[in-house]
Amino acid sequence: MPIYRYSIAMVLLALAGCTQTPATPITHTPSLASSTPAASAQTALPVANVTPTQPSLAKSQSSSTAINCSSPATLTPSMTEGPYYKAGSPERSSLYTQGMAGTKLILTGYVLTSDCKPIAHALLDFWQADAKGVYDNSGYNLRGHQFTDDSGRYQLTTVVPGLYPGRTEHIHVKVQAPNGPIITTQLFFPGVVQNQNDSIFDPKLLINTQNTSDGIAGAYDFVVNAR
Length: 227
Ligand code: FE
Known about the structure:
Elements: H1 3-15, E1 104-112, E2 123-127, E3 143-147, E4 153-159, E5 170-176, E6 182-188, E7 208-212, E8 215-219, E9 222-223
Parallel strand pairs: 1-8, 1-9
Antiparallel strand pairs: 1-4, 2-3, 2-5, 5-6, 7-8
Fe (iii) ion binds next to strand 5.
């Protein structure tokens, strides 16, 4: 993660007389211990009906519980899984461990239907590279799945992934409403120079980020089909 852009952002905020607002921690209620992770349901992944227009979802929800969604919302675009997915990730909302290298990231958001209804107990299975751009392919470092709480909300604590050859910064995720199709996609970070050189970068999958005293607060809402 280029440090300079956050530094620039902080300077601009200071010049504008702005005060940074730390992200509000969100209480996540683990649920659905008996649910089957998408990891074990990898056959016949449905392809989402993606409309190549923006999802009109506001993504700055790190300090608010409001759902900003206009119905009908555009489905979250699907994206290639890449070569580093591993089934069977542990259920956990934090992939971060004390002393882990990189910039801490707390990503929050909702899983919604296209008519803007939050989906409780939706599965989110995240995996990513570490701050040096390396995946843990022997274990489950920086891999984990979780479920949205009763309000359809999720929170992921992790670090900003590093770059690796040919790719900009990204976090992989599979999202699935209960009994719905699995959507495989990737999230990106704004202001990363390499975004423009990554052939699969999609601005519709940009996380909304905000600097905090503890790292970065990010927000992204997913819109998926539910059954
Ligand atoms: Fe990747």
